[in-house]
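1st attempt posting a full record on here, be nice pls
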Amino acid sequence: MKVITESFLRESFRKEIPETFKVEAGQILTPSAAQLLSEKGVKIVRDGAYVAGEIPEPPELPASAPAPKYVLAGGGGMFDTKPEHMTRLYGNRLVPKDHPRIFFRGRLDSIQSMILLAQSRIHEKGLKKLVQDLGEVLDLARAIMRAEVLDEVLCERSLMGLREGELREQSHNPEKYFGTKHLLVSFDMGWVLLTLNELRSSIREVEVLAVKAFRNEYEIEKPEIIQALNRMSSAVYIMMLKEKSGKYR
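the predicted structure (as tokens):
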């Protein structure tokens, strides 16, 4: 591996955090990866020697001073109380509230609110299977939130009994599975279809925000979250096709 990233290290350290980490000749250690090694107390070794200047060193504190409650993600600050304009990225690492990861969380939270409102209205209409299918999308949105906030790996799951390839296949070939062409949404389709379309387009927006939040100079962190959001929007589009073809009635 030529580039050593933070996401690679986090995956490597899930079972055990070593005392030292060896960087081979020609390998590049990204700044965020170096910061993570510093936070975990792992020493960097190149050619058998510890590279003292490679990891940003925190400011020295008097021996009697208590450890700070919060630190600024990326280094450069320590806090005993959380400033109002900042929030937790994860653990005790703080970032400004307009950080891309925090903005992504807020929009993902909005998606959950939209699903709940849609379920409430559709339940009143008696479309129980559609309410159930939306419940699976809600569960996935909540799983994404948990994985992002706790810095966990999001496990793949099915939606409406369909795996990743099946979701793509059905959403790309509506005539084969639903007897209808790709939908051209119009105002007279009824509120159920229009509500689902609003949810689908909002999920696509959140997917773009996820790319912005997890993209760094060398790679995409948490690609499984971006993939899950893509499959989520495909699932909602399939719900639109099922509703249009009368499969929920």
